[in-house]
Amino acid sequence: MILVYAEGGGLGHLTRVQALIHTLGLEGAVTIVSSGAAGADGRVTGSGAVLAMPFRRDDLPARRAWLARTVAEVAPERIIVDAFPAGLGGELDATVVGAVPCDHVARLLRWDVYRRLVPAAPVRYRTTFVLEALHAAHAAHVAATSAEVRPLDLVDPPVTDDVAAWPGPADGRPRWLVAHSGPAAEVAELVAYAREAAEAEGVTPQLVVATPAAVAPPRAPDLVVVDRYPVWPLFGSADRIITAAGFNVVRQLVDHRDRHTVVPMARRFDDQFERARRLRAPAGAGR
Question: Are residues 121 and 237 in the same domain?
């Protein structure tokens, strides 16, 4: 059995886990540690069992004790740690994982902020899979704590045709898609951005908002709101896609950059502004 530590508040960690399982061809039972609300959504977690961390991120002794106990009880043959090499609050260290072989999946972090959480005895990883270019100090930490570092391009699991069907009417208007998993204030911000852009350009698009029901904007005549997961199959049918600058959506839209508008959101650790800057830079510049 594989234990995946994907602790985080958003949908992105679980989306990345499913893509990683598919890309690496991992077989057998998977148990995921994740406290986000999406952990209760079978569309997102697949067949994996989900355990929620029961302690706040600042309660490090309790988090470490719970993790060590969970590792002992689950007895995984392998641990995979998503995004944060020391966990969300610095709770993941060598004493927690013991002798279990560990791998890491690294994406861009605000390393100047996150590095303060790295414990004195960091986890030593067999392999760190690097999903996008890291800041130099982050890359140096990965190299120092990993036996092997190698790039990995994730591929999402296949979907059925009904997930890919465009949810708006077939009326010939431009198809605009706002895709974001929340929070609600950010979904509202992206919808407002789309409306302002449409007004400035003098167009009246079909405006489809793909977002979880819990954070969906109020009903309005100009919106079609859907709780669609995964959302990436809709990208090929949209004339414009407006999103934040999270890792998954930027990766999934790499072949649709001419239609993609990013509005980066402030995050404690995820460096969405740097990711957006790279996306907007001329090819080969500032990468």
Answer: no
